[in-house]
């Protein structure tokens, strides 16, 4: 399958001399046409810098960016006509209606005869019943749907979405990702950055980033299958104390709090689980239940970053 996006040893340095910050550290990625590709990592991992580099909004300090077979360095204007970009702060106009916002972005992209395309997008995003509502009066989830419709009005081949669901409620997040999945039928390539690893599970492939470096890039199921440790879900009477105790074991156990439960990463084997229970008991922590669970992408990512 032909690549839609190629990053070849891309470096991005901000600042000069003693104020230098390396945002991307020799990052290489191949993103295939027609896939949903997720960039995942904590704040400062380099996700937004990578997305902006792919859009041509930033120039690499070193390395090459190629979009749809065209080098960004020499074909920037041609590339911009074939891509869409939804930034973290996409600029909708609050005093314009849904209809008028889409019209405005169609005019910016110099799209002719876009009325049927607009109707298609309104139906697709389920915004048609609200088309006369001012953007300022939309919920967070509806604003993101409108932003997506504006991004798609010129029928791009690749769209870049920078943390599109940050600050959006869980139901709207799920709805937004259903829309993205439906888009794949048109053959579009979707590149999305997200801090939510449960969202990344819906992607074709995932790149885990940390401090501007690529930790791993593969299908979610392959990344999880490569995990060599076990994950145990623990319910304890003092979960916060349990996390502190387990994370002081110098890497023997790694624990993260998920609501009122702990996910504990430990070496495979029955003795490890017994040792875990004994350690918590010695600290006066009562384990109400513990069970082995399949590792999530978040478990794998945290283990890689903290190891």
Written description of the protein model:
The protein is of the alpha/beta class. It folds into two domains: 3-224, Rossmann fold (3-Layer(aba) Sandwich), CATH 3.40.50.300; 228-306, Alpha-Beta Plaits (2-Layer Sandwich). Helix content is 35%, strand content 29%. The chain contains eleven helices and 14 strands. A six-stranded mixed beta sheet has the order 6-7-8-3-9-10, sandwiched between helices. It has a four-stranded antiparallel beta sheet with strand order 2-1-4-5. A hairpin with a 6-residue loop joins strand 1 (3-14) and strand 2 (21-32). Helix 3 runs parallel beside helix 5 (140-152). It is globular. The mean pLDDT is 91.
Brief descriptors of the model:
307 residues; alpha/beta; Alpha-Beta Plaits; 2 domains; 11 helices
Shape summary? globular
Oligomer: single chain
Q: What is the CA-based Rg, rounded?
A: 22 Å
**How are the strands of the biggest sheet laid out side by side?**
6-7-8-3-9-10
The CATH architecture classification of the largest domain is: 3-Layer(aba) Sandwich
Whole-number average pLDDT?
91
Number of strands: 14
Q: Biggest β-sheet: count, sense, barrel?
A: 6 strands, mixed
The domain count comes to: 2
Q: How many helices in DSSP terms?
A: 11
């Amino acid at each position: 399958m032909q690549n839609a996006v190629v990053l070849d040893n891309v470096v991005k340095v901000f600042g000069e001399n003693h104020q230098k910050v390396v945002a991307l550290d020799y990052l290489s990625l191949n993103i295939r046409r027609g896939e949903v590709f997720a960039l995942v990592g904590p704040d400062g991992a380099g996700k937004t810098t990578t997305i902006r580099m792919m859009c041509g909004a930033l120039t690499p300090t070193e390395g090459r960016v190629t979009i749809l077979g065209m080098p960004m360095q020499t074909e920037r204007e041609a590339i911009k006509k074939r891509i869409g970009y939804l930034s973290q702060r996409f600029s909708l106009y609050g005093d314009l209606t849904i209809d008028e916002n889409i019209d405005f972005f169609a005019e910016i992209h110099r799209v002719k005869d876009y009325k049927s395309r607009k109707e298609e997008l309104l139906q697709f995003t389920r915004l048609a019943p609200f088309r006369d509502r001012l953007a300022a009066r939309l919920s967070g989830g509806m604003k993101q749907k409108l932003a997506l419709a504006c991004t798609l009005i010129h029928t791009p081949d690749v769209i870049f979405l920078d943390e599109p669901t940050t600050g959006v409620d869980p139901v709207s997040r799920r709805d937004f990702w259903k829309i993205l999945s439906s888009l794949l039928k048109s053959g579009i390539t979707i590149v999305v950055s997200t801090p939510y690893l449960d969202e990344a599970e819906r992607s074709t492939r995932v790149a885990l980033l940390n401090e501007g470096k690529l930790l791993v890039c593969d299908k979610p199921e392959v990344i999880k299958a490569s995990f060599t440790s076990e994950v145990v879900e623990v319910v304890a009477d003092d979960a916060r104390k349990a996390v502190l105790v387990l994370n002081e074991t110098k890497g023997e156990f790694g624990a993260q709090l998920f609501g009122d439960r702990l996910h504990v990463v430990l070496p495979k084997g029955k003795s490890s689980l017994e040792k875990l229970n004994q350690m918590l008991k010695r600290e006066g922590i009562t384990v109400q239940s513990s069970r082995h669970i399949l590792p999530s992408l978040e478990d794998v990512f945290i283990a890689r970053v903290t190891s």
